[in-house]
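[Automated response] Your request has been received and processed.

Submitted sequence:
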Amino acid sequence: MLPGHISYNVQIKKLKFVTDEGVRFPSTALVQFRVEGRENPVVELLGHMDENEIYNAIDRGELLNLDHCYIEKFSLKDYRLTRNLDAREKVVLTGFSARHSLFGGEASLDFSHAIFEGGNFSLDGAWINSGDIIFESARFDTGEAIFHNAHFPDGTVNFKNVSFGSAEVSFKNCFFGQGEKDFQYASFGTGSVSFINTEFTGGDINFINTRFGKGDVSFKMARFGTGKVDFHFASFAEGNVSFERCEFGDGRVDFRTVEFGTGRVNFNRSVFGDGEVSFDECEMDAGKFSFKRAMLGTGSFSFEEVMFEQVEASFERTNFGTGKVSLYKSWFQNLSLRFCHLNGYVDLRLNKCSFIDLSDTIVRDIIDINPHDYSARIGTLSLAGMRLIGRIYVDWNRNNLLKLINSQQGSSYRIKAEQFRILKENFKNLGQYNDEDRAYVEFKRNELKAELGESLEKNPLNGIYHYPAYLFKLVLFDLAGLYATSPVRVLVTMLASFLVFSLVYFLLMLYTSADIVASVDDQLGMLARSFYHSAITFLTIGYGDHYPVGSIRWVSSLEGFSGLFLMSYFTVAFVRKILR
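Generated structure:
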C-alpha cells in the first residue's frame, strides 16, 4: 500500500516491471515519497504505462490491469478527442483495476460515460494526486465497484448519474479531499453500498435524488466535514441503512423527503454539529427507525410531516442540544424519547401515533402536544419518571389525557399516580386550574388504589382493614366532593344526605316507637316533622322547638356531624375555586 506522504518525485526507467501477481509493464517508475516526520524519503517501485499505451489497450479491448502502476494521465475526454468520438460516446473498459496505483499529474481523472465490464472495477488503495475525479454517467455492468482505501485529492468528485447495476459498491476507508462530492441521481442496484469509516472532509456532499437498491447501505463511522450534507429526495429500498456513529459538521444536514424503504434505519450515537438538521416529509413503509444516543448542537432538528405510520421510531437518550425540535404533524406507530434531555422547545403536535413514550425525560423548556387546527390521534402517552423543569402545553379534554395515561400497558397505579401528579403541577403553573383539578383527582384515585394494592401484596390479610378503609375514603373523599375540587358535587352530596336522613326519620317514626316531639303548640305532620328536624339538625341550627325521642336521637347525632363536615367540605372546595 502506498504510504501517506506530503509530496513525491518520480523517475521513469526503461526497465520492464513485473508485479507479484505477474502483471508486466514496459517501464518502471521509481517513486520517492516524502513522509512527514521522516528525514529520508520512502522509495517505492511501480510499473508504468503512459496514456497512449493505455488508450491503445482500450482500442484492443484488453483487460486494463494497472495494479501497482504509476499513471501520469488518464482521461476518457482526451481519449475521445484523439479518436474523434463524440464527447458522450460510451467507452468500454474491460476489467479495469488500479489497486495501489499512483495517479500523478495535474489533469483530472476522467471516467465519464465509461462502461465497466469484464469483472471487478478496483481503485483499492489508489492514490490520486490532484485534479477533479469524474465518473459522470458511467455504468458498472458486472462485478464489484471497489474504491476502499482510495485517496482522493482536493477538488470535485463527480459521480452524477452513475449506474452501479448489481455491483457491490465499497468506499470503505476512503479519504476525500476538500471540495464537492456529487452523487446526484446516482443509481445503486441490488448490491450493498459501503461508506464505512469514510473521511469526507470539507465541501458539500450531494446525494440528491440518489437511488439506493435492495442491498444494505452503510455510512457507519463516516466523518462529514463542514459543508452541507444533502440526501434530499434520495430513496432506499429493502436493505438496512446505517449512519451509526457518524460525525456531521456544522453544515446543514438535509434528509428531507427521503424514502427509507422497509429496512432498519440506524443513526445511533451519531454526532451533529451546530447546523440545521432536517428530516421533513420523509417516508418509511415499515421497520424501525433508531436515533439512540445521538448528539445535536445548537441548530434546529426538524422531523415535520414525516410519514412513519407503521414504524417504531426511537430517540432514546438522544441529546437534542439547545435548538428547536419539531415533529409537527408527523405520523408514527410508536415514538420513544425515553431518557432524553430536552433543553429547547419541542413541538410534539403529532398527527397520529399509537404510543408516545416520554418516560424518564428531563424537560427544561416547553413540550407542545396540543394542536389547535386539527385533532391529534394519540393512543397512549407515558410520562413516567419525567423530570419537568419546564412546561407541557397540553389540554385535558382535547388531548384526552385520562385515556392516554390509563391505557398504558403494564404500568402500576403508583406510576400512573405520579404521572397525574406531574400533570397537576404542570397545569397549576400554566394557570389551567380546571385541568389541574381533573389531574389532581386522578392522582388521588390512583394513589388510593396503589396503597391498597401494595398493602395486599405485602400481606393478603391486610385486606381485613384496608378494604373498608379504601371504601370509606372512596365515598368520603372522592364521591362526596372529588377531593374538594367540586363545590357543586359537595352541594349535591349535602342535598342527598339531607333527603336520606329525612326519610330515615320518617320510616323510624312510622315503624318504631321513635318520634320527633314538638315543644310548642305548632303541630306538623309526620313527614313535615321528619324534613324539618333533618334540616335544623343538618345545618346545626338547633331551635329546640322539636326534639328527638328514642333511636332517632342517635341518627340525629350522626346527621349533625355529617352536616358540619359537609358544610366545611363545601367551604374548602368553594374558597379553593374562588381564590384561584
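Summary generated for your ticket: The mean pLDDT is 92. Residues 412-478 form one domain.
If you did not submit this request, please reply to this message.
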